């Protein structure tokens, strides 16, 4: 695979420049997405619509669309990786791979029921996972340079702890959502427990915290772009869920916020 990159880019400086440009483009996409989501919800789950393409089985969709975010990094790491032997780079790559191992190879097969995903949402998620998988992993495995003591730096320690807390919140919140219905039951229920005591989008909060921590620990424009994009998409979804719950359930806890406990 390294030979492919050498054929595509005349120098490492050129590829690093491309990676930087991809990061700024992701930030631009985040801004455009923010504007778009003021008028529409991301069309999957309870907001799915046939206007956005034919339905794709939800388990199949989650498995296939998230898989590139796991396989692309593995493929890149099997090539010549100049920084792969450095501890900070290794730990950051483990954080990234840990999330997408769970998201692509475990989460889809735990889904109970769930509405089919419109094809356009499925296709966009698939493309994004290829894009971001290449961006994050190529930078960390080949270009990111950290001081020898980076793993003891406050940025890395705080960021890593945030990543871990966010990852746990995300997985625990998904567990609560999966177990809302008993076998054979349909319809929606109010999620309770965990961070759902404080916010309607506890699973989204976990992922936002996770990638914010990752960005702090990685300390790069590439990880920051991913964190910003994640915040834009998931904050919009959390707000939509919050409004939906309030409209559907008269007894919905009024003290809950949408995404940030006690604030928003």
The secondary structure category is: mainly alpha
Please tell me how large the radius of gyration is.
19 Å
Q: How is the largest sheet built, in terms of strand order?
A: 1-2
The helix/strand order is HHEHHHHEHHHH
- The whole-number mean of residue pLDDT values reads 90
Low-confidence stretches: none
Amount of helix? 55-70%
Instruction: Kindly state the number of beta strands.
Output: 2
Per DSSP, the total helix count is 10
* Major sheet attributes: 2 strands, antiparallel
Task: Quote the beta fraction.
Answer: under 5%
* Separation, N- and C-terminal Cα atoms: 45 Å
The backbone outline, from C-alpha atoms, is: globular
What is this structure, in a nutshell?
This protein is mostly helical and 264 residues long.
Describe this structure in words.
This protein has 264 residues and is mainly α. 64% of the residues lie in helices and 2% in strands. It has ten helices and two strands; from the N terminus they run ααβααααβαααα. The chain has a two-stranded antiparallel sheet. Helix 2 runs parallel beside helix 10, helix 4 runs parallel beside helix 7 and helix 8 packs antiparallel against helix 9.
